[in-house]
Amino acid sequence: MSVTIITTGGTIDKIYYDAKNDYHIGQPQAPKILERAGVTLDTPLIPLFRKDSLDITDEDRALIRSTVEQQPGHNIVITHGTDTMTKTGVFLQGIKGKTIVLMGAMYPAEFRDSDAVFNLGAAIMAAQTLPEGVYIAMNGRVFNPAKCVKNVAENRFEEA
């Protein structure tokens, strides 16, 4: 079994950039996370683009969708910024023969106390065990993207 990981950017991949306390989206962090965790599962990586999710367009979502549809494997994890993750999840609904799990992080993966490691692990497990469909894995829960929201004040996802 394998889980294909498609990266699109977002906070998970942000890196500290300069003395102005500025952050930019860097290289995908998923491979580093999986290596540190000793994951031996086959996880082909497709770095699609590096954008803040607020900058993701419907054309970008169409590219994500076509990339998912072209994958030979059934299990897909998409790393994504949290601000528009639900919108992308809804856009991907209806793809047949795939279990698609979107995940992100509230803090960059390079931060010691980041939720990225936990969320990526949850997403990989969800992609292997859930039935065909589209899901969001955040904060120790799995959500239907059409029925959840990001609670900015509490810094978490919850049922809508």
UniProtKB/TrEMBL annotation:
Domain spans labelled L-asparaginase N-terminal: 3-155
Protein name: Asparaginase
Residues annotated as the enzyme's active site: T11
GO MF term set: asparaginase activity
Species for this entry: Simiduia agarivorans (strain DSM 21679 / JCM 13881 / BCRC 17597 / SA1)
One Pfam family matching this protein: Asparaginase
Lineage summary: Bacteria, Pseudomonadati, Pseudomonadota, Gammaproteobacteria, Cellvibrionales
PROSITE patterns named in the record: ASN_GLN_ASE_3
Record: residues binding substrate: S53, T82, D83
PANTHER family: 60 KDA LYSOPHOSPHOLIPASE, L-ASPARAGINASE
